[in-house]
Amino acid sequence: MRTSNQITLDIESFPENVSLTRVLAAAFLAPLDPDVTELTDVKTAISEAVTNAIIHGYEKESPENRVRLTLSLQDRLLTAVVADTGIGIPDIPEAREPLFTTKPELERSGLGFTVMESFMDTVDVHSTPGEGTTITLTKTLTIHG
After folding, report:
1. 61: buried, middle or exposed (CB in 10 Å: 19+, 13-18, 0-12)?
2. Which CATH number fits domain 4-140: 3.60.110.10, 3.30.565.10, 3.30.750.24, 3.90.1170.10?
3. How far apart are the C-alpha atoms of 68 and 55, rounded to whole Å?
4. Of 2, 48, 64, 131, which one is the catalytic site residue?
5. pLDDT, tens digit (0-9, with 9 covering 90-100), for 21-56
6. Burial letters for 2-16: b for 16+ Cβ neighbours within 10 Å, e otherwise?
7. Catalytic residue among 17, 38, 108, 117, which?
8. Which residue in the list 52, 61, 117, 131 is annotated as catalytic?
9. What is residue 112's predicted lDDT score, i.e. its pLDDT?
10. 26, 35, 31: which is closest to 5 by C-alpha?
11. Are 31 and 1 in contact (CB under 8 A)?
C-alpha cells in the first residue's frame, strides 16, 4: 500500500461545493480502509473548515472567490489544508471561541473551530486581514487495509 499521497482541489467559494470536499476526503482515505467513525470525523472537520472559508472568507459571492483544499498523507499522518484569499480573521483567538460568529444573521452557531478541534489532532490557523486564511488540520489515522 502506498504510504504517501497528495491531492489538491481548487473550488469556487459556493456552499454547494462543500459536499464535494467531503466526497474527495472519503475517496482519498478509502485505500486506508478507515472505520466509519474515523472517516466521519475527518469529513466533518474538513467540511467545517471549507464552510468557514466560504461563509466567512469573502464579503460577497463571486466566482473569483476560491477555496483550495490540499490533502496529503505521509505514513499514517493526514494533513488537510484549507485556504482562501479572502478578508482574513482580525482576531484568531476570538474567532476560535465557542459560539463566536461574525454572521449571526445567517444563524451560524459559532462552533466551526470547536468541531474541527474535537475531531482532529491539531488545528492550526494562520490569517492576515485582507489576504486570507489558511487552516491546517492533522490527524494520525488507524490503518486497517
Report:
1. exposed
2. 3.30.565.10
3. 14
4. 48
5. 999 999 999 988 888 999 999 999 999 999 999 988
6. eeeeeeebebebeee
7. 108
8. 52
9. 82
10. 31
11. yes
Q: Is 48 a catalytic residue?
A: yes
**Residue 1 confidence (pLDDT):** 58
pLDDT of residue 82: 98
Rg of the Cα atoms in the chain: 15
- Residue ranges in the chain whose pLDDT is less than 70: 1-2, 99-110, 143-145
pTM value? 0.90
Is 2 assigned a catalytic role?
no
Q: How far from chain centre, in Å, is Cα 31?
A: 21
Residue type at 34 in one-letter notation: P
